[in-house]
Amino acid sequence: MTPALRALTPAMRDGGDDVARASSHAGARRATHHACKGGKITGAPMVYVSGEEMTAYVMDLILTKWIEPHVDTRAWERFDLRAKNRDDTEDQVLRDVITAGKRLKAIFKEPTVTPTADQVKRLGLRKSWGSPNGAMRRGWNGITISRDTIHIEGVELGYKAPVYFERHAVGGEYSAGFKNVGRGKLVTTFTPSEGADAGKTIEVDARDITDAEAAVVTYHNPYDNVHDLARIFFGRCLEAKITPYVVTKKTVFKWQEPFWQIMKKVYDAEFKQKFVDAGVVKPGSELVHLLSDAATMKLVQWTQGGFGMAAHNYDGDVLTDELAQMHKSPGFITSNLVGVDENGVLIKEFEASHGTVADMDEARLRGEETSLNPLGMVEGLIGAMNHAANVHNVDKDRTHAFTAHMRKSIHELFREGKGTRDLSGPSGLTTEAFIDAVAERLDNH
């Protein structure tokens, strides 16, 4: 997979015309051929994953009032990933989402519930189904989770200029095996499947456990796709003309050294001179490494923005939570999973970085006014629609023009003080009134 991705031009990696001609299925080609000159935009094939609670309610309104009056979405493949449906189908729906995502390359996902023990009882579930994200990352050969700040011109948030973040999509504690144990001897071994030592048992670590209660944990960090992560990260930073930094704790966690070495090797060989030529860094300067401890402080100090960070899975998870809080809230951060298929074509899944906003949904169901800002979800939907149009070569120009106008309409309302109450204060609009206000501008365009 790595050589295939490396061989593609940036436009092709993002799903340009050459890839579309090679990879689009017959239905997409027919849709391109029959795309009408006027009337509704032809929505390109993509996966739409619905969730639950307040965010599902809001996205239903957005689809009804913003999208369906202007876009023919019949090529979208829709899946219900509510906890109850996962339970009813014994998670077949999640497997179907992964299969469809591999085929269509573009996915939008609403926030979903990972049920607690109380929710298992309340919803009548047979078990507590785990987060779908891990299965999606594995199923789509996840490389990175891109989380970037969202900005509205004329509205002050946290960072003044964009901040980009790449979180390695695989490895680390999330896939760990563990066992709670007592006193005894712990020996960790590894058996290679290839090379001169194939089939031999190699001792990785041995230690005595002297506590009556202890936890034994094993996990690994895959590094084969870090080359691809580096190209995605440095390419995005170069395009935005922002300074890249690589974050690890390699001084203590020695096994993280390869992550830094791979990132630096790709930067030096393929990007260093380009950053100099673009005026982003000074001649003779080197790629900067930040310890994760230092990165937490820099996120607080560098409020001017204009930088990017790349990190391992767990560090990326924690640091992007901090990034979100510094930039107002998780509603102003994107969350895009980037994977790759066997031909080197990128698979992209777009979602908001926040959850289902259950407390606001409970207020709505009690008949109280709510004011949910949908910007994070809409940015995800825009990303999925644009990527689908590019990959499948379906009504690209009109799709991009429509999504740009949708974003512009939202931003205009916030600048005019007619946004939701998180930014516009007590005089801001309710959830439904804001959606109606955007719909009116889309209808009048």
Any key phrases for this structure?
445 residues; 44% helix; Isopropylmalate Dehydrogenase; Cobalt-precorrin-4 Transmethylase, domain 1; alpha/beta; two-stranded parallel ribbon; 3 domains
Can you offer a commentary on this structure?
By secondary structure, this protein is of the alpha/beta class. The chain has helices at 2-7, 10-13, 17-23, 26-34, 53-67, 83-88, 92-104, 117-123, 133-139, 226-240, 257-277, 292-301, 313-326, 358-365, 375-392, 396-415, 421-424, 431-444; strands spanning 41-42, 47-50, 71-72, 77-80, 106-109, 144-148, 163-168, 177-181, 184-190, 202-209, 214-218, 243-248, 288-291, 307-311, 334-340, 346-352. It folds into 3 domains: 48-152 and 328-444, 3-Layer(aba) Sandwich (Isopropylmalate Dehydrogenase), CATH 3.40.718.10; 158-171 and 226-326, Cobalt-precorrin-4 Transmethylase, domain 1; 179-216, no CATH class. The protein is built from 18 helices and 16 strands. A hairpin with a 5-residue loop joins strand 15 and strand 16. Helix 10 packs parallel to helix 11. It is globular, with a radius of gyration of 23 Å. The two termini are 43 Å apart. 39% of the residues are buried.
Spell out the blueprint of helices and strands.
Elements: H1 2-7, H2 10-13, H3 17-23, H4 26-34, E1 41-42, E2 47-50, H5 53-67, E3 71-72, E4 77-80, H6 83-88, H7 92-104, E5 106-109, H8 117-123, H9 133-139, E6 144-148, E7 163-168, E8 177-181, E9 184-190, E10 202-209, E11 214-218, H10 226-240, E12 243-248, H11 257-277, E13 288-291, H12 292-301, E14 307-311, H13 313-326, E15 334-340, E16 346-352, H14 358-365, H15 375-392, H16 396-415, H17 421-424, H18 431-444
Parallel strand pairs: 1-3, 2-4, 2-5, 5-16, 7-14, 12-13, 12-14
Antiparallel strand pairs: 6-7, 6-15, 8-11, 9-10, 15-16
